Amino acid sequence: MKQYEELLAHLNSLKKFCYVPYSKFKVVCSIYLKNGKIINGVNIENAAYNPTICAERAAISQLITNGFKDEEIKYIALFSESNIPIYPCGTCRQTLSEFIDFNTNFLIFNSNGFIEKRVFAEFLPYSFNKTYIK
């Protein structure tokens, strides 16, 4: 499908910005907004590992920094330089749950192209979220 080929080309163009001197594992996350804007994030490693920033959290940080809200998200595309599908880690899932709608579509890509479409709720079915502390 042409749309997926264009998305993959965009995601691939951002791989060069990943800072992964230790794992060499590149991940790119692009948040596509309803107004046509694209918010991007790449993974950024650190020798201490704990301060490493995943692509999903980098993108969500940019979304918030630029003043956008979850209702403006059309979908999120996630790419990993891998032969298998890779999904957000637990920390990213919890972080995303704070800022995006659980019905947000994720388009999953890897080095072989488009893999599948998932709804965010599938990644974190029993989340602890802000509704519990209101």
From TrEMBL:
Which terms are listed as keywords in the entry? Hydrolase, Metal-binding, Zinc
Q: Which reaction does it catalyse?
A: cytidine + H2O + H(+) = uridine + NH4(+); 2'-deoxycytidine + H2O + H(+) = 2'-deoxyuridine + NH4(+)
Q: Which residues form the active site?
A: E56
Q: Single Gene Ontology BP term?
A: pyrimidine-containing compound metabolic process
Q: Where is Zn(2+) bound in this sequence? A: C54, C89, C92
InterPro entries referenced in this protein's UniProt entry, alphabetically: APOBEC/CMP_deaminase_Zn-bd (IPR016192), CMP_dCMP_dom (IPR002125), Cyt/Deoxycyt_deaminase (IPR050202), Cyt_deam_tetra (IPR006262), Cytidine_deaminase-like (IPR016193)
As recorded in UniProt, its EC number(s) are 3.5.4.5
Pfam family, any one:
dCMP_cyt_deam_1
Gene Ontology molecular function, alphabetical = cytidine deaminase activity; identical protein binding; zinc ion binding
Where the record annotates domain CMP/dCMP-type deaminase, the positions are 2-131
* Chain sites annotated for binding substrate: N43, I44, E45, N46, A47, A48, Y49
Any GO CC annotation of this UniProt entry:
cytosol
Q: Which SUPFAM superfamilies match?
A: Cytidine deaminase-like
Q: Does the keyword Transferase apply?
A: no
Which superkingdom is the protein from?
A: Bacteria
The answer to whether keyword rRNA processing applies is no
Q: What does the UniProt function comment say about this protein?
A: This enzyme scavenges exogenous and endogenous cytidine and 2'-deoxycytidine for UMP synthesis.
Protein name (database record): Cytidine deaminase
Q: What is the lineage of its organism?
A: Bacteria, Bacillati, Mycoplasmatota, Mollicutes, Entomoplasmatales
